[in-house]
Amino acid sequence: MNCSQKVIIYIKINVMIKIKLYTLLVVILFATTTFAQSGILDTSFGNNGIVLTDISPNANQGNAVSAQVDGKIVVAGYAGDAATYNMAVARYNTDGSLDTSFGDNGTLNFPVGSAKSIATGMEIQADGKIILGGYTDDNVSGDFALVRLNTDGTFDNTFGNNGIVIIDAGGNEVAKAMTILDNGKILLAGANDQNFSVARFNTDGTLDTTFGVNGWSIIIFEDNLSLVKDLTIQEDGKILLGGDGIIDTYGIAAARINADGTIDNTFGTNGKVRYSLSGIGNSTRFGGIAVQGDGKIFLGGWRGITTFYDEFLVLKLNTDGTLDSTYGYNGVVTAQIVLGYQMATTILLQSDGKLILAGYAEYQSEYFNIVMVRFNTDGNLDTTFGTDGKVSTDINGNSDFATAISLQTDNKILLTGFSGTSAQDETIFVARYENTILGTEDFQNMEFRLYPNPANEQITIELSDASSNYLVEIFDVLGKKVYTSEIQKSKSIDVSALAPGTYLVKINSENNTSIARFVKQ
């Protein structure tokens, strides 16, 4: 082979490499740009992203929402007249139409016991059966209640008494949150005589007497009235409880118990913490609890600034219950959607570490919109979400109140609650929003980790193979190389000077190439 032939072959190889790299860039960046903006309504669902459902001609409210593995959406809450509320359930197809194969043409409305009954929580088992958690109340005292439905909406007669369980602990009980454990047992939490309370049930609905004291764990906040409103499970099996703790004003309260129901004294003071961060005479209220994989804890809610103004609030706690000073301002971040009343009622921690608070805000006197805010991992508002990190939705000019949030398997956001003009003219709503979650392993083959993603100031790359030197290259949307350097084990790269947009990171060794993308904010 002569010199000219070698040059031609060399040129062809380089051209082919560049074409392949450019093609990969186009494919990845096209996938990036075709994602709908996070926080906008999904117009393929219902009527421009919203579905309204009246199960009763009077009040209707959704308190829990979840997507099944087949994409169908289930909402639970209550319906009826205020004196005779019944538990209510609706199931929707993926397009938002009622699933007529479920219940009575897509909905259910039934009493639990002789008192009014309200579903406040819901979980879908791995076999598709639906568990509702809530309470019954005769306006004097209440009891915890569970219901298990078959996949078609009929009562599961293998559970409790013909599908229904009512438990009286001897006081006045109200349940506000539930979850299913990995072993199928059920936790139902709320208050017993205004103390934090949790009950655990076996898979057949019987009370699990190996938990706490005869199936109950009751946590007393001295000199406080307290109510569990949300709970979550740590990776080690410990149970985190969050809610309101009231002395002279409301505060955010949290407790941690061991898997057996005993108090975890490694958390806070004797297993409990309470935070009140309001101005004089105002309240700090609880909206939801979430836990990271490293055990750090988020408490969401809102606080009063003055008599007429509120703001959304997130507290981040270390594993021992102290505030995490590396987050926001000494562990606290806030956001205002409007200059007025705003209340956060539900929380969602995404797989990428971003946190969503949802609730409602007043835009005119007695006129409220559904609202959401999303925070980046450092506590700053995520400007890729909605408008500058905030979303506000009005439904037909009514007052709208979000009560529960969840994600579909495709990461679209589901919100439920109620909309109406009065307490006896409320309709259940389900709203679905577009949402893109970029993971640290997005478009890569696990040869390296890249975080944070999206990024503002810098990215960090960690190699799975620390034995060799690698070449790291960053390309912009046009395929232009904007950065190159060697890396061994790990490297932090300053990206503050890069223009906002999507970039491709390529890691090269003699025998391997790995690629990932990241978004520069």
TrEMBL record:
It comes from the Bacteria. Keywords: Signal. This is T9SS type A sorting domain-containing protein. NCBIfam families: delta_60_rpt, Por_Secre_tail. Residues 450-518 form the Secretion system C-terminal sorting domain. It holds the Pfam family DUF5122. It comes from Aequorivita antarctica. SUPFAM superfamilies: NHL repeat.
